[in-house]
Design brief:
This protein has about 425 residues and is α+β, with helices and mostly antiparallel strands. The protein has nine helices and 20 strands.
Length: about 425
């Protein structure tokens, strides 16, 4: 009998025995203490019940006070926990740590002249210094290579292609080392950095590496289990955190630890599994072990709020890099704001969903000589659909364009004032 079933059955019988025993004691009391003599009807009934209970529960009938140990001496996990531990066990070997190292100056204290040495002797006494003492100042004595940061990644091909975040490998002067789950170190080469997404592909030399399978992020549901694996805090390799998908199609502004180089990331998945510094670039997995996202950001000062880029946004980039060694990203050339009722009301627009083409003080609404400019798209236009797929807060313009190839011709549905127009645009290629 399984351990859990044994405990349930034991508790059921114990409750039954207690009820019957109490009933017998009451009857025995009323029968003027017949139970001790075992001679009356009540006493015989009590004896039969006790013998029956102990016979059906051999471990109670023995002298031992220890319950039988379950198989393998460990309690069984519930089915949900078994799935999670199975996913982690299978996925862990394909998750890697990425360390960042670069030459940094060695600063020492070097001897220097006193700043008051040139004063006349009659004035030196007023400064209270022993002018024969040695002064020093910071100076550089060469450089040394140091680890200055870290992140995570996961292997997507057996010949060593690894997906990570662009901000993890953004420093073109740094060197990158990949540490695999078996403790081996590999020199990593940055093959490609995505021009618009926080995604990069690095390569290590070797073969027969374990890989993760890319899933389908379009089917993600609120409340489903999410498993994040990564190099937490840049120190604890392959740390696992488990939570649920708590939001979809979020827009966040992310920056590095210095607060510089911030960028807006569209259409990200919000999760309540902990994402710490160093987790960036690690996989977000579903309960079947498929990659559904790339861990990319956390909310500073908040607990259990993290974000991941949907895997469907990067699938095409991974394919083009593995096949040709380069990311080919489609490019339209507009600046926009995704509409909701409040934004539509503010600008007196006739539609409440779509991409509102609008510039600001830093950039134009439509880039000159871009595919959008050549197709006649104007500031103030609202792109409501691309190839029949409607744009809204859950499906942004950038996300749909990321699913296209440079050179593809797309059909745009545009609300221009009170008119609806259709425009064909041949997409260009975004430069890194």
């Amino acid at each position: 009998m399984e351990y859990k079933e044994f405990i349930i059955e034991h508790n059921r019988r114990l409750r039954r025995y207690i009820k019957i025993t109490l009933l017998v004691l009451v009857i025995g009391f009323l029968a003027v203490y017949e139970i001790p003599a075992q001679g009356g009807l009540v006493g015989k009934l009590h004896q039969v019940l006790v013998q029956n209970f102990y016979t059906q529960n051999d471990w109670l009938n023995s002298n031992s006070t220890t319950m039988p140990a379950p198989e393998n001496a460990t309690p069984s996990l519930d089915p949900h926990d078994q799935l999670i531990t199975s996913v982690v066990k299978k996925s862990d070997p394909a998750v890697v740590a990425i360390t960042i190292s670069k030459n940094v100056p060695i600063i020492e204290q070097c001897p220097s002249n006193s700043p008051f040495d040139n004063l006349p002797p009659e004035f030196q006494q007023f400064f209270g210094f022993d002018f024969g003492q040695q002064f020093s100042q910071p100076c550089q004595k060469g450089t040394e290579k140091k680890d200055v940061g870290g992140g995570s990644g996961f292997i997507v091909s057996s010949d060593g292609y690894i997906v990570t975040n662009k901000h993890v490998v953004s420093d073109t002067k740094a060197e990158y080392t990949v540490l695999t789950n078996d403790g081996k170190k590999y020199k990593a080469t940055v093959v490609a950095r995505h021009p618009s997404l926080d995604v990069a592909i690095v390569k290590i030399e070797g073969s027969n590496f374990p890989t993760l399978r890319l899933g389908n992020s379009d089917g993600i549901q609120l409340g489903q289990t999410a498993i994040a694996i990564g190099n937490a805090l840049g120190e604890f390799r392959n740390t696992v955190s488990v939570g649920v998908v708590s939001g979809l199609a979020r827009q966040v502004t992310a920056s590095d630890e210095s607060g510089l180089g911030s960028e807006t990331i569209d259409n990200v998945i919000q999760i309540d599994a902990a994402i710490n510094p160093g987790n960036s670039g690690g996989p977000l997995l579903d309960i079947n072990g498929n990659v559904i996202g790339i861990n990319t950001a956390m909310v500073s000062g908040a607990q259990s709020i993290g974000f991941a880029i949907p895997v469907n946004a990067i699938k095409r980039s991974v394919e083009t890099v593995v096949q040709g060694g380069k990311i080919h990203a489609a490019y339209l050339g507009v600046r926009y704001v995704m509409l909701n009722e409040d934004v539509a009301k503010k600008y007196s627009l006739s539609v409440t969903e779509g991409a509102f083409i609008k510039g600001n003080t830093d950039s134009l609404a439509v880039e000159p000589n871009s595919p959008a400019a050549q197709a006649g798209i104007r500031e103030g236009d609202v792109i409501t659909a691309i190839d029949g797929q409607k744009l809204n807060i859950n499906t942004s313009l950038a996300y749909i364009i990321s699913q296209k190839n440079p050179g593809d011709t797309v059909q745009l549905d545009i609300q221009r004032g009170d008119k609806q127009v259709q425009v064909s645009v041949k997409l260009g290629e975004r430069k890194e």
